[in-house]
Amino acid sequence: MNRIYLDNAATTPMDRAVIDAMLPMMESSFGNPSSIHTHGREVRNTIERARKSIAGLLNTSPAEIFFTSGGTEADNTAIVRSIEDFGITHAITSRLEHHAVLHTLEYMAKKGKIKLSYVELDDKGHIDLTHLEVLLRDNPKTLVSLMHGNNEIGNLLDLNVVGQLCEDYVAIFHSDTVQTMAHYRHDLQQLKIDFLVGAAHKFHGPKGIGFLYINAKNKITPFIHGGSQERNMRGGTENVYGIVGLAKALEIAYSGMDEHRKHVEALKARMIHRLSTELDGIEFNGDSANLERSLYTVLNVSFPPSEEADMFLFNLDINKISASGGSACTSGSDIGSHVLTALNVSPERPSVRFSFSKYNTVEEIDYVVDKLVSILKVTA
Questions:
Q1: What is the DSSP string of 77-89?
Q2: One-character DSSP codes across 201-226
Q3: CB contact at 8 A, 194 and 51
Q4: Regarding beta strands 172-175 and 195-199, do their DSSP bridges make them parallel or antiparallel, or are they unpaired?
Q5: Beta strand 298-302 pairing with 283-284
């Protein structure tokens, strides 16, 4: 068995068709898109075709799509510029958000720019919508930043419900959709959302490129200064190769989304079934075992406590299995999972996030479960 990659929530292997789309840009289309000569104009046209393609898939205007270096920059831009430009004095988030959101909001709160509130969670890690409404009702000029799909436990947020609440209370709504982009369809004509984020390397595109959707009703100033690129919204020469790869990857994902979802969801269901029936003491963190309320690409498994807990991921690695995870933090200084800590998962239990893609197979899932059974028998 070749090495098995089950860490697709971290990054995905590039699709060969994406590489093929990028190569001509690397080999011959080298002009600076800001130049007015033929070389530059050709590349500028390529960028705008990519922007139009992405906008079409998301059912929005190309004028609302802005290219960034990835999801982190896009999140930072939406959060910081909203607070600065809209006079935001209060922000709502959850303790389960990606650090691109949490650390940015915490920084803005530390600087005295905002008051920061954390919405309550149920025992599975889902947002308490009643508490969210209370926070919105009691705090005007609010920014809500809640992710669509959690990158560690896979919990899904109902964007329609939260978007409606934000509209009802005149709040700005930003969602980190990095984990769900290209795995679910986002219709931006229907969603009541102000800012939305994507990163190509999460759906078989290149690293170092992403985008930020900015609803046309929102006028913000640049987060990165230094040039008039991206219609004066982001300084810096565009990552042309990345933009082409991003657009191609999104096109491929949308064209095969239903088929890929069926395949990947079956892999996840098989792993849940086999782990539940063949291993004692298994728990699933958050709602990741609920196929209706979690990402079909993510399964977070909590294993029984053992003296070898710190070596669990290493044992997987030497058995040719690449996954990620760890335990909850035991103290504020530990480098552990802030998500599992917020859910009160025991730090004595090793937890592993398995995340799947269209390239994984049933044979790989069976191999991984067989190895987990053997590892746990040894460490029991």
A1: HHHHHHHHHHT--
A2: GGTTS-SS-EEEEE-TT-----SS-S
A3: no
A4: parallel
A5: antiparallel
CA distance 130 to 217: 27
Tell me which of 308, 329, 367, 379 is the catalytic residue.
329
Known active-site residue 166: no
Instruction: Write the pLDDT tens digit of every residue in 63-101.
Output: 999 999 999 999 999 999 999 999 999 999 999 999 999
Q: Where are the beta strands (DSSP E) in the chain?
A: 4-5, 65-68, 90-93, 115-118, 142-145, 172-175, 195-199, 210-214, 283-284, 298-302, 321-322, 324-326, 351-355
User: Per-residue pLDDT tens for 144-180?
Assistant: 999 999 999 999 999 999 999 999 999 999 999 999 9
pLDDT of residue 307: 67
Least confident of 138-147, 290-299, 370-379: 370-379
Tokens of residue 99, six digits: 């650090």
Distance CA 222, CA 259 (A): 39
Greatest Cα-to-Cα distance within the chain, rounded to the nearest angstrom: 69
Whether the model clears a pTM of 0.90, i.e. scores above it, the answer is yes
Torsion angle defined by CA atoms of residues 281, 285, 289 and 294, in that order, rounded to the nearest 10 degrees: 180
Cβ pair 345, 336 in contact under 8 A: no
